[in-house]
Design goal:
The chain is of the alpha/beta class and about 260 residues long. About 20% of the residues lie in helices and about 35% in strands. The longest helix is centred in the middle third of the chain and has 13 residues, at about 115-130.
C-alpha cells in the first residue's frame, strides 16, 4: 500500500496543466536511443509520450493504483510504438539486472525522498543501473524563501484546472506546512470540483510530503554518490540556470572512479 494509491483517480485531472516538461524528456529519450528507465512514473504522464516516440521504456513506481492507470494508457496505444514495461518498486531499493543509457525522474519525483539517506540510496542504485556513458536527468524546483515563511494555516489559490477527458473544471487550493529543520514540506491540496450550476459539487483533500533541496546541496550530493554534473538547466527549453530560474533540471553521468 502506497500513500499515493489514493491519488490515482484524480492525479491526471489535477496535473493536466503540467505539459512543458514532456517534449524535453521525449527529446532526451530519443537522443539516448533507449531503453529508458523512469523512476516515479505514476500514471504514465511522461512514460506514454516517450513510448509514442518509438523508445522502449521501463517505468517504476511504488503505487500499484497509479500503475494501473498507466497500464490502461499503455494498452490503448496499440502497435507501432516503443514497449512499456511497468513495474512496482521503490526507487530507494531496486534491482533490474540491466543497465540503461538514460534514467529519468520527472516532475520533482526525487523530492519524494524525505531524508539524505534515502536520496543517497536512490542515487547509488541509479548509478548501478547506468551505462558507463549513461545519463541521469531529473528536475526539482528552486526553493522560494517566501514559501518558507508563509502562514501555514492559510490555503491559497493554486490554479483552476480542466480535466481533458471530461471537461470538468476544478479549483485547486494549496496549504503548506514547512519544517525548515528537516527541509520537509507537508502539502495539502484542496480540490473543489465545480458542478453545472457553478457550485462546488465535491471537495477532495490530497496530502503529500516532499523534501526541498538547494542547488549546492544537490551538487555535493551528486558528487558524493559518484556523479559528474554535465548540465544544469533553468527550464525545459535548455536555458542555462541563473538567479532568476525557478526550476533546476539536472543532467549527470557516472564519474570515472
Amino acid at each position: 500500500m502506497s500513500s499515493y494509491d489514493g491519488w490515482a483517480d484524480d492525479y491526471d485531472s489535477i496535473y493536466a496543466y503540467v505539459r512543458e516538461d514532456i517534449p524535453f524528456y521525449v527529446q532526451e529519450a530519443s537522443r539516448s536511443g533507449g531503453p529508458v528507465l523512469e523512476l516515479g512514473c505514476g500514471t504514465g504522464r511522461v512514460t506514454v509520450p516517450i513510448a509514442q516516440s518509438g523508445i522502449d521504456i521501463i517505468g517504476l513506481d511504488n503505487s500499484d493504483a497509479m500503475l494501473d492507470r498507466a497500464r490502461t494508457k499503455a494498452h490503448a496505444l496499440g502497435a507501432g510504438h516503443g514497449s512499456i514495461d511497468l513495474q512496482l518498486g521503490d526507487m530507494r531499493d531496486f534491482s533490474l539486472g540491466r543497465t540503461f543509457p538514460l534514467v529519468v525522474i520527472p516532475f520533482r519525483g526525487f523530492l519524494a525522498l524525505l531524508s539524505v539517506e534515502d536520496q543517497i540510496r536512490c542515487l547509488t542504485g541509479i548509478r548501478e543501473h547506468l551505462e558507463l556513458d549513461g545519463r541521469l536527468i531529473f528536475n526539482i524546483f528552486v526553493p522560494d524563501p517566501q514559501m518558507l515563511v508563509e502562514d501555514e494555516d492559510e490555503a491559497f489559490h493554486l490554479r483552476d484546472v480542466t480535466d481533458p477527458d471530461t471537461g470538468r473544471t476544478s479549483v485547486v487550493w494549496q496549504q503548506t506546512r514547512v519544517d525548515t529543520f528537516n527541509q520537509v514540506l507537508s502539502v495539502r491540496l484542496i480540490v473543489d470540483e465545480i458542478g453545472r450550476e457553478g457550485a462546488v459539487a465535491k471537495r477532495l483533500y490530497r496530502d503529500y510530503q516532499i523534501r526541498y533541496a538547494h542547488r549546492i546541496e544537490v551538487l555535493h550530493l551528486l558528487e558524493r554518490c559518484g556523479y559528474e554534473v554535465v548540465d544544469l538547466y533553468g527550464d525545459f527549453d535548455y536555458s542555462p540556470f541563473d538567479e532568476d530560474s525557478g526550476e533546476m533540471v539536472w543532467v549527470a553521468k557516472p564519474r570515472d572512479l
